Amino acid sequence: MSIKEEYKYGFVTPIASDVFPKGLSEEVIRAISAKKQEPSFMLEFRLQAYRSWLQMKEPTWANIEYSPIDYQAISYYSEPTSKPRLESLDQVDPEILKMLDRLGISVDEQKHLTNVAIDVVFDSVSLGTTFQKQLKEHGVILCSISEAVRDYPELVKRYLGTVVPVKDNFFAALNSAVFSDGSFIYIPKGVRCPMELSTYFRINEKSIGQFERTLIIAEDDSYVSYLEGCTAPAHDTNQLHAAVVELVAHSRAEIKYSTVQNWYAGDSKTGLGGIYNFVTKRGLCAGDHAKISWTQVEAGAAVTWKYPSCILRGDHSVGAFYSVALTSGKMQADTGTQMIHIGQHTRSTIISKGISADESRNSYRGRVVMGPHAHYARNHSQCDSMLVGGRSSAHTFPSISGGNATAQVEHEASVSRMNEEQIFYLQTRGLSKEDAITLIVNGFCKEVICELPLEFAQEAQKLLALKLENCVG
Amino acid sequence: MMLEIRGLHVSIEGIPILQGLTLSLPYGQVHAIMGPNGTGKSTLAKVLAGHPSYRVDEGEIWLKGKSLLGMPPEERSHFGLFMSFQYPVEVAGVSNEQFLRHAMNAHRQAHSLPKLSREAFALLLSQKMERMQIRSEFKDRSVNVGFSGGEKKRNEILQMSLLEPDLAILDETDSGLDIDAMRIIAEGVNDLRSSTRSMLIITHYQRLLDYIRPDQVHVMDKGKIVRSGGPELALILEEKGYEWI
C-alpha cells in the first residue's frame, strides 16, 4: 500500500488578520453590518434572522454524530488587515498569492488558459475577482455579496432570502444573521455568460466560522455555469462552515451550479479536527422552461449536511441533482436533494453516487414532492452506493409524496462493493493499482463527473482516486 | 523453460495450501493440471498471477528466467503472464472496450511503445472479436456485468488474444459452460497456441482436454504434483476417478 498522500491543502497562511472576538450577540451582528457599511435593510434582515435563530433548535434528524457546537466559541468575522480595494486579484498580499499558487489557482488573467473568471473568498471576505472587463461587456455581474449590497442594493433586496427564507432552518437562520461574504452573480436577459464563473472558498483562521452567502440570478433566456471549490487548513479543532446559496432562474434561463468540495476532513485515524459543513442550497425555477442543475463532488469535511434542492415553479421547468459523495476516515455525510414539483410538466433527475471507505458513514437523503398542480410532472431518481473496505456504511433515506395522479416518480437504488478482487483483476491485465482504482471509481461516478465543466472533471476524478488509494484492502 | 516452479509452499492466513509444488513447463507446450477440489489448483493460478492475499513461504517461481516473487501483478502481466479467471470480476460503469484499451495501452507503455489511439484500438478489437464470433455490442457493455457464464469466459480469451501473453494460465475455464460454449472457447484457445507460447490449463474435468490437447498432464493432490504423464493420464483419471491416485 502506498503512503496516503497527506491533505495537501492543510497549510495555514501566515497573514495578519483582523479577527472579531469569539461569541455571537446582536452587538456582533451590528458590528459586522457596520464593518461592511451596509444599508439599514441588511441590518434588519440580519437581526430578524438572529432573533429567529435564537428560537430555533439545531436539527437532529440527520444520520450524523458530532460533538456539540459551541456557538459562543466561534469568531464570526475575520479579514486580512491589509485590504485596500484592489483593481485586480494579482495585486493581493504576496502571502495570499503564494497560498493561491499552492492551491493551484492562477489569478493572473494572462496566464489563465482556461476560460474561468474567479472570485476568492478568504475567511470572511472576498479578495476580488478576475476578468471584470470581459464580464462587464456582456453586462454580467460577478462580485462579492458585500459589493452587491453596496452597489446593487435593489437587486439584493428583491431576491435575498426569497428562495431560502431566514427562518428556513437553524443553519440558514444563523447564516442570514452573520454571513460575511460570498458571491453575487447577475446575468441579464438573453445573455449567455461567455465564461465559467467560479468562487474559491478558503477558511484560514483557526477559530473562525465561515458563513458565505451566494446569490445567483439568471434573467429570462440567459445561461450561466458556476463552480465553487473549497479547502481549509488542517487544524485539530472543528471549524464551522454554514453557507446559504440561492439561485433564481427566470423563464427559459439555465443555471448550472457545480461544487468540488475538499474541506479538511479531520485526522483519518482519530477523527480530530475537520470542517463541519452545514449548507443550505436551493434553486427556484421561477419561470416556464427554466432549468437548474446541481452537480457536486463532495470529498472532504468531517461532517456534511447538505441538500441542494430545486423548486420547480415554472411550467415545464427542469431540475437536476448529480452528486458524488465520498467519505473516508471517520467522515460522515448526510447529503441529498429535494425536488419540489409545483408547475405542470416539470421534470427532475436525481443521480446520487455515494462512496464510503474506512470507518465513514455516508447517507443519501432525498425528497420528491409532486404538488397538486404538477400535472404530468416526472421524476427519476437513481441512488447508488459503493462500499470500500468492510467497516464503512451506506444509507439511503428516500421520501416521495405524490399529490397529483398524473405525475410519475421512479426510484432506483443499488449497493456494490469495490474490493481487492476487482483491483487484482485489473492489475492482472496490466493496470497499476492506482489506475485500477481510478477506472473503477470513474466507472461508478461516470454519469455525475460528465456533468462537471470539462476543466474540473479531470481534477475531480483525480481527487476521488487520491482519496481512495489507501482505503482498499 | 517458460515456467519453472521449485518447492513452492504457499499459505493464506496461516493455513498452508501449496506444500512443495514443483513443475516445469517448456516453451511452446500446453500442460494440464488436474485434481480433486480443494487441492490448491486455483491457488496456484492466483499465486502465479500475484494475488496479494497469498503468502509464499518457501520456494521459487521463474518465468522466462526471471523470478516472479515480489513482482506486482501488473508487472507480471507486462512480462507476459496472463491468467484467465475462473470467476471473472464485474466492473460496473466501465465499458469493455474502455477496459481493454486501458489494458492494451498499459502493456504498450510498459514496453515503451506508443499508446494506440481510440480508433486504432477499436479496429484491432473488432478484428479480434470477429475472429472469436463475439457480437459487437459486447464492446459497449460494462466489464462482465450481466454477462452469461460463457460470455465471461469468452471475454477472458478475448483479452488473452489482445494481450498476446507468453504464458497463459486458464483457471477452470470450462466450469459452468455447456458443450457449445466450451467448443467455441477451445477454438479460441487453440487459435492462440504457438511454438513460443505456453499454456497451463487448470481443470477438474477431462472434457476440456478433448478439445485442447495437452502435451502433459499433472495430477495435483494436497498442494503438490503427485503424478505426471501424457494426455492418456487424463483419460485414466476420468475413468477411475481421483481415488485411484
Structural overview:
The complex is a heterodimer of chains A (473) and B (245). Chain A is α/β, with parallel strands linked by helices and 473 residues long. In chain A, strands 5, 6, 8, 10, 11, 13, 15, 16, 18, 20 and 22 form an 11-stranded mixed β-sheet that branches. The radius of gyration of chain A is 21 Å and the shape is globular. Helix content of chain A is 22%, strand content 35%. In chain A, strand 3 and strand 4 form a beta hairpin. Chain B is α/β, with parallel strands linked by helices and 245 residues long. Chain B has a domain of 151 residues: P-loop containing nucleotide triphosphate hydrolases (Rossmann fold, 3-Layer(aba) Sandwich), CATH 3.40.50. Chain B is 35% helix and 29% strand. Chain B contains 8 helices and 12 strands. In chain B, the strands form 3 sheets. A 6-stranded mixed β-sheet of chain B has the order 6-9-10-3-11-12, with helices on both faces. The radius of gyration of chain B is 18 Å and the shape is globular. The interface between A and B is medium-sized, with 22 and 31 residues.
CATH topology of the domain at 3-88 and 166-178 and 193-244 in chain B: the name is Rossmann fold
Radius of gyration of chain B: 18 Å
- Based on secondary structure, the structural category of chain A is alpha/beta
Q: What is the share of helical residues of chain B?
A: 25-40%
What class do helices, strands and sheet pairing of chain B give?
alpha/beta
Terminal CA distance of chain A: 8 Å
> Which runs of chain A of at least 5 residues are low in confidence (pLDDT < 50)?
1-5, 109-114
Q: Which regions of chain B are unreliable across 5 or more consecutive residues at pLDDT < 50?
A: none
What's the average pLDDT of chain B? 92
β-strand amount of chain B? 25-35%
Task: Give the strand tally of chain B.
Answer: 12
Spatial strand arrangement across the major sheet of chain B:
6-9-10-3-11-12
Q: Examine the secondary-structure arrangement and name the CATH architecture of the domain at 3-88 and 166-178 and 193-244 in chain B.
A: 3-Layer(aba) Sandwich
* Chain-averaged pLDDT of chain A: 86
Q: What helical percentage do the residues of chain A reach?
A: 10-25%
Q: Tell me the quaternary state.
A: heterodimer
Question: What is the tally of helical segments of chain A?
Answer: 10
Biggest interface and which pair forms it? A-B, 22 and 31 residues
